[in-house]
Amino acid sequence: MKKIEISVLRPDAALRACAEVWHAVETGEAVTPRLAFGSLHELFSTITEKRLDLLRHVAAHDGLNIRQLANALGRDYTNVHTDVTSLVDLGLLELGTGGGLSTLYDEILIHADIRAAA
To answer: Can you name the CATH fold of 3-117?
Structure first.
């Protein structure tokens, strides 16, 4: 199962995490892909409930284009296009050459230390 970890990290913790990943890659260790946000607000503004629903739908119906996805979700095409663009930019979705969408991960793990993020 291919997974990605999404975390809320303060700048000092993000630098340490980056150094840890750099060291792991240099030594040939397998590294789980990661995304980091600076606050819970930033995380929840970017990874919204509708975007998570969109990811789940694409995972279950690989290859849909944006219009088909908007119709299946009962959402406006422009809003779905905006969400897809954001998720592609984050590396959570892939847009194929024929316009078909696919998810890059089977599991998203979200970590948010509420004390450190406050």
So the answer is: Arc Repressor Mutant, subunit A (1.10.10)
